[in-house]
Amino acid sequence: MHIPDGFLSGGVLGATALGGLAVFSVSSARLKNSPPERIPLLGAAAAWVFAVQLLAFPAPGGASVHLNGVLLCAALLGPWSAALVSFSALLLSALMFQHGGLFSLGANFINIGVIQAFLGFALWRLRPAASSALVIGPLLGFLSGLACAVELYLSGRLASGAGFLLLAGAQAAAGLAEGAVTASLLGALSRLKPGLLRLERV
Amino acid sequence: MKIKLYLALSAAVLLVPWAGNLLWGIPAAAALLYWKFSGAAFFPAVRRAAAALPFALLIFISNSLSGFSGAAPWGALLKSASVIFMTALLFCAVPFSEIVSFLKALRAPVVFISVFSFMYRYFFSLKDDISSKLKALKARSRRPPGRRELSSLASALLLRSFERADRVRAAMLARGWEA
After folding, report:
1. Is residue B17 in some structural domain?
2. Does residue B99 sit within a domain?
3. What would the pLDDT profile of B133-175 be if each residue is shown by its tens digit?
4. Are A44 and B161 in contact (CB under 8 A)?
């Protein structure tokens, strides 16, 4: 769920912008001294994350979802790289498709980039197999939806109850599809190009 | 200048209280002012903005389900629609290179600027790949492509994307690039 501008209060916008900026700054600092070949690789991953949003994957309940690809990037490239890739894709998505607001970029980065990159990577490391994504995907989706619901609640935009359930439930369903696609992508990559699963994870 | 005005007008719209009926004119006036100033075509920007509105509508519905009533949900939706429209105008009116220059002026980290620029450059070739592959998938089947077909398309795109990154890097190194 990309929160558009206009729905978050000033306090929530400020707090999430500061939090997002902190993670973004540390990610950039961690990747500052990367080997030169990593930059085009991150650019290619970000372009893929951005382009794959054009594909509508069928989700439970007859809906369709767009991949955000952060879990896959975290599994392939590591959490800091996945966070930077996610930030770049979210920024371009807000500019080009108005999918999520520029002022709410910090909130969207925390909900999608930070939660999915770091928690996704931590869970992935527990059992680094393609099938793990089937469990991690919906869990991350649920947590992202919950974070989004909390931000809206703190902004006075959502009362607890039906709104929380709607957002977290919809995101968990989307996460189910994301997890299934990520699992099949990881399976395909391990068959077709296993070298990609052995990249340095930063 | 167009970026700075966008930021100023959007911030002004976002500061308008949600429930103030009399202030509803501010988001609309800001959107119209920015349209005039940006020089971008009206209808392409409206089309772009309309594609983004369902996400705002979903939150509006959650708002309504949560028991909010009266002007507040409508005020938020109007503010959101106004900023979405101005963002669409911004992207129509300002070249990508100017956006990158603005980020540089803000002292954004070099590694981020590089990744962001590479992403934009690679995106259009991937977009063309997606269009041609989707067309081929649809031509071969009566039903719309399912999860399996789309997953294999996404993995082919990922491989192609990484291979392109390798080729570009080799070409850049050959031209003396050092990052």
Report:
1. yes
2. no
3. 888 888 887 777 777 778 888 888 888 888 887 887 788 778 8
4. yes
In a domain, B102, yes or no: no
B178/A32 CB distance under 8 A: no
Determine, yes or no, domain membership for B115: yes
Q: B159 contacts in A (CB within 8 Å)?
A: 189, 192-193, 196
* Three-state secondary-structure class, residue B176: coil
* Same domain (yes/no): B131, B76: no
By Cβ distance, the residue of A31, A41, A159 closest to B68 is A159
Listed residue (B95, B120, B170) closest to A37, CA to CA: B170
Residue-level length of chain B? 179
Residue A3, amino acid: I
Domains of chain A: 10-198 (1.10.1760.20)
Q: Which two tokens stand for residue B71?
A: 């002007």
Q: Are residues B86 and B141 in the same domain?
A: no
Inspect the interface and report whether the beta carbons of B80 and A7 lie closer than 8 Å: yes
Q: Mean pLDDT for each 10-residue chunk of chain A (202 residues)? A: 82 93 94 81 87 71 71 90 93 86 91 92 87 88 88 78 75 82 84 77 81
The tally of CA atoms less than 13 A away on the side-chain side of residue A29 is 6
- Enter the tokens of residue A34: 């990367």
A98:B87 CB<8 A = yes
Note the ipTM here: 0.86
Contacts of B134 in chain A (CB under 8 A): 55
Same domain flag for B61 and B123: no
Distance set, CA B50 to CA A1, A70, B172 (Å): 17, 26, 40
A102 and B87: CB-CB below 8 Å?
Answer: yes
* Domain range for B88: 2-94
At A88 the pLDDT is: 93
Q: pLDDT tens across B112-140, in order?
A: 998 999 889 888 888 888 888 888 888 88
Q: How many domains does the structure of chain B reveal?
A: 2
